[in-house]
Every structure is written in C-alpha cells, then in structure tokens.
Amino acid sequence: MEDVLLQDWEKKSADHQRVYKQFLLRANKNKVLKALPSLHDEAFEKIDCLQCGNCCKGFSPRFKTPDIKRIAKHLKMKDGDFINQYLFVDSEGDHVLKTKPCSFLGQDNYCSIYEVRPSDCARFPYTDEDVLLKRPSLTQKNSTFCPAVYFVLEKLIQQK
Fold first, then answer.
1. Residue 160: per-residue pLDDT
2. Using alpha carbons only, how large is the chain's radius of gyration in Å?
3. What are the pLDDT digits (tens) for 41-53?
4. pLDDT band per the 50, 70, 90 thresholds, residue 112
5. Same domain, 142 and 114
6. How confident is the model at residue 3 (pLDDT cuts 50, 70, 90)?
7. Which of 40, 63, 98, 137 would disulfide-bridge 128, Cβ 3.0–4.6 Å?
8. Residue 2 pLDDT
9. Structural domain span for residue 66
10. What is the rounded distance in angstroms from the CA atom of residue 42 to the CA atom of residue 49?
C-alpha cells in the first residue's frame, strides 16, 4: 500500500465523510457506474485484503437462508445447529454473527469457509456494483474501515 492516496486513509476518510455524503447523493449515476469496474480493479491492485481484514474483524455480513444452508452443509451441520452456534437475529431481522471477529477468520486473515462464504462477503466491498450509490449510508460507513471503498470514493470525487 505505497500509494500516496492510501497514506493515513483512515484519518482522511473520517475527515471526508461530509464530502462523501454530498457526492453520493448528487453523483451522476451513469458516469459512476461506468467508472466503477476500472476503479475497483485499480483499488485491488494496490490493496491486499489479507493485510487488512477489517471487514471480518469488526462487522458481520447478513447470513441469508441460502448462505446458511450452504455453509451448514459444508461444515456438516444441521441448519438449526449452525444458526444456534454462530448466529443471532439482529434488530433489522437479519441473521448475523454472534461474535467479532468472525468465527471463520484465521490469525492470517484467511477465511476458513471462503469457498462457501455468505453472498455479502463475496460481494463486499460493493465497489464494482450499484450498491455503492443505492445505499449511500452503507458506502460511507464502509469507507471508514475498508481502504478499497475509501480509494474508490476518492478517485470518483477526483473525476468529477
């Protein structure tokens, strides 16, 4: 992560939250969606998730029914046993992890269920899809702990 933009990114992201909010609310949707694939690729050329793992350390994905079934099968567990051992229903009615960091995150930041991980994990950080614009408050929150979201937002703002 020797990119200048990424130096002190946590502080810069915190300082730029108002700018991000205004940008996301006023952005030209078509222009942003066209730019996302290349910016997403550029971000992940510079950022190694295994050096970070913030998403898995401090937050839980939603575990949808297909995720629960797939992961429980992979772990050779009954769906109900998987839910009882690892999940609870949050205030929004979603199944989420009981513990942080994620129960499946290793010391090396590798995921022990990577090949069957929840769809939220597979899609995160949403920097190559319209969720970035459709859920601006989520994008802002993600920019505070994910350097890729921060990077993409900064690049989008520079392109204005």
1. 72
2. 17
3. 999 999 999 999 9
4. very high
5. no
6. confident
7. 40
8. 53
9. 62-120
10. 14
Q: What sign for the dihedral angle of Cα 75, 81, 83, 84? A: negative
Q: How far is C-alpha 62 from the chain's CA centre?
A: 11
Residue 83 and residue 108 in one domain:
yes
On the CB side of 42, CA atoms within 13 Å amount to: 16
Q: What is the pTM of this model?
A: 0.92
Domain check: are 114 and 150 in the same one?
no
Instruction: Show the tokens assigned to 83.
Output: 């839910």
pLDDT digit string, tens, across residues 80-105: 999 999 999 999 999 999 999 999 99
Residue 7, CA distances (Å) to 34, 100, 120, 147, 158 in order: 27, 26, 27, 10, 17
Q: Are residues 113 and 66 in the same domain?
A: yes
For residue 91, what are its two tokens? 């205030």
